[in-house]
Amino acid sequence: MSNFDLVLSIVLGVGLAAATGFRVFLPLLILSGAAYAGQLSLDESFAWLGTRAALIMLSTAALVEIVAYYVPGVDNLLDTLATPGAFVAGTVVSAAVMTDLPPMVKWTAAVIAGGGIAGFTQSITAMLRANSTVLTSGLGNPVIATAELIAATLIPFLALAAPLAALAVVMLLLWLAMRVRRRLIRGTQRSY
């Protein structure tokens, strides 16, 4: 495997991991579907992700997660649970696609880059939802849930097709989320 292929597998892992910060199970489901269809090679220890059983389990979990984020109150509770879940899922998807790397390099990159970006993405969206809950009494939360759902769907497909472009989109989305959050905080401070 060339150095470019190694870098590309790390970038793919980071792009997929970032998507788990928006929804934990949907990017895992897309990864599982790509592996099941033979479109993506996984590391041997993650071959289980490319099975029919994994597809069924992840489909169910993704559907429940998607619906739950549209239930007032449950969405904020899910953010509490999803933060550590996103870190774990981000680490798993990163490690799964980082094939042919020495174990120390793979797990270091998966935990720091994959888990880190997933945790960061989830933290930003959780703060955004918390601010929305306070400022709109939760009425703005479905808008955030829909934006997260779109990002969690599009980013994994983009990462599979063009990993560098996916990483650029993730960085843009995080920048936009931080700007929106800052504006929400400024609006709250002005009203006091």
Set out the fold topology:
Layout lengths: L2 H18 L4 H12 L15 H17 L5 H24 L5 H34 L4 H21 L1 H28 L2
Helix pairs in contact: 1-2, 1-4, 1-5, 1-6, 1-7, 2-3, 2-6, 4-5, 5-6, 5-7, 6-7
Description:
It contains 7 helices and no strands. With 192 residues, it is mostly helical. It has one domain (3-190). Helix 5 packs antiparallel against helix 6 (141-161) and helix 5 runs parallel beside helix 7 (163-190). The radius of gyration is 17 Å and the shape is globular. 42% of the residues are buried. The mean pLDDT is 90.
Largest sheet: none
Mean pLDDT: 90
Instruction: Give the number of DSSP strands.
Output: 0
Rg over C-alpha atoms, rounded to the nearest angstrom: 17 Å
In DSSP terms (H or I, runs of 4 or more residues), the helix count works out at 7
Q: Return the structural class.
A: mainly alpha
The H/E string reads HHHHHHH
Strand content: under 5%
Dominant shape:
globular
What's the number of domains? 1
Low-confidence stretches: none
Give the helix proportion (percent range): over 70%
Termini gap: 58 Å
Jot down its keywords:
mainly alpha, about 190 residues, about 80% helix, 7 helices
Short synopsis of the structure:
It is built from 7 helices and no strands. The chain has helices at 3-20, 25-36, 52-68, 74-97, 103-136, 141-161, 163-190. Helix 1 crosses helix 2 and helix 4 (74-97) runs antiparallel to helix 5 (103-136).
